[in-house]
Amino acid sequence: MPSRPAPSADNLDAIPRQHRLAGLRLGLLYGPAIYGVSAAAVALPAAADALHTTPIAAVWILTAHALGLGVATATAGLLADRYGTRHTLAAGAIMLTAGATLCAVAPGLLVLVAGRLLLAAGSGAVTAAAMTTAAQLPDRERPRALAVIGVTLACVSATATLAGGLSNLLSWRLPLILPAAALLLVPFALPLTRRRPIGDRPIGDRPVDLPGIAAVAAGAAGGLLLIQAYTLRLSPAVAAGVLVVTVAAALVAVRRHRSQKSAGVLDVVIGDAQLRAAAVVGAGVYGGMFAALYAVPHVLYRQHQYSAVDVGLLLLPGAAGAVVLARVGARYVASLGAVRVLTIVATTFGLFLASAAIVPHPTVLVATVAVAFGAFSTTQTVYTGLAGQRAPRSRGSAIGVGNLAFFGGGAAGSALCSALWQPVGLNHALALMSLLPTLGAVLAALSCRWREARSADQRLASSTAGDGLRPSSGVSRRRGTAR
Q1: Of 114, 216, 399, 457, which has the maximum CB count within 10 A?
Q2: Architecture of domain 17-194+263-450
Q3: What interhelical angle do 362-390 and 308-315 show, nearest 10?
Q4: Which CA distances in Å does 340 have to 22, 63, 230, 353, 404?
């Protein structure tokens, strides 16, 4: 009797019904989190006027969202590994509802930023649930799902600015709460999630390290405050206090990580060289993307007299370029490796950022944002696939820590760009921001070479240890003959 062919990703009949269109559903569930950056960036000028504050202070509407999204994603990824993705998704939906409500009624900038932090926490939990669910799909289905997620994220990224511009016509508050649109996708993605984690708990019986998570959040927030100390007009005493708190928080986070008494957010990625390198280059990509999304609408608005809707329409065709870049990047992961693909993407994005700063023509600016969207979707999907391979029992934690690095880099990018705007000008600030993805690519490339050299030394040492030979003896184990 002939054997039945093994199911493949191309055989739809072999895919369970609840897993069909999984990539599209999970990508659309993640997508509204992008609106928290792109759509909100369009509304920043109107929000600053309505709240009677400066554009430099209003950048905290973006920065707070990026910081909250990164910390929440790392925390939610850890909790998803322990308690399952379904509970994580439900908690995210509750926080999204509360954050959107607070943003809708906020009377001033401080309350609005608090609402955006809560909204970002909800988006982070939803994002962690979506990407952890994608990483937990069966091996035969995961590549197709990740490819579809990458294309979906690229398309959503390109439409986010237009969505922000159109909603801004009704009210400047609407673009700020668009991440809550993920609530509409929760019922469709819920069947894909799990009530319990896969297999044994990857963090065992150790409690979740809530103090360590708080220390990471405090250190990141303090670093962002120090970046904008000049623009926020912090007194020397206040700046010194922030510095002390930031250093203390960083020391506490490192100590909690080394203690191994509790399950911290950094445990999985710190111990894996490839995940570390990918997280570093991703942080540079997100830093450049956030800087571009902050600077490009301002350049088009102030220097070229485009309206918010015009800016959205200009950036919409970038979806095609973003999709192409995401698909090309995913195609070469198997042959080049995840870290090398991310390095190439980051270097390309850095060159486009530098070109936009030198030649701030609308065509160049639009092309730069399209590459930014493609780099973003490529980074997210490639890293998710790498985390699924390198940390099969801690996928949520690995994805969460990666997103902490990504969105932390994004928050730093927008904060640096706004801090440099006044002293050097927006175009020069954008030129300096092109160094962020380039620096991430350089660090990742150096990390890969160092890791390969160390692996080669280890293989050479192990091959000569059996014969009692030193690595420099010039004798090969093969056939016991000299070289």
Answers
A1: 399
A2: Up-down Bundle (1.20)
A3: 60
A4: 27, 29, 37, 20, 21
Residue of 189 and 419 predicted with greater confidence: 189
Q: Which comes out higher in pLDDT, residue 223 or 125?
A: 125
CA count, 13 A, side-chain hemisphere, 24: 5
Report residue 451's pLDDT band, with 50, 70 and 90 as the boundaries: low
CA distances from 157 to 152, 171, 317 (A): 8, 21, 11
- Cβ atoms 280, 447 nearer than 8 A: yes
Indicate if the alpha-carbon torsion angle 288, 290, 293, 299 is positive or negative: negative
For 8-54, what is each residue's pLDDT tens digit? 433 334 445 555 688 889 989 988 988 887 788 778 778 888 888 87
Bridge partners (DSSP) of residue 475 are 482
Give me the residues paired with residue 136 across strands: none
Q: Which stretches of 303-394 are DSSP H helices?
A: 308-315, 318-331, 333-336, 338-358, 362-390
Domain extents in the chain: 17-194+263-450, 209-262
pTM: 0.74
SS3 10: coil
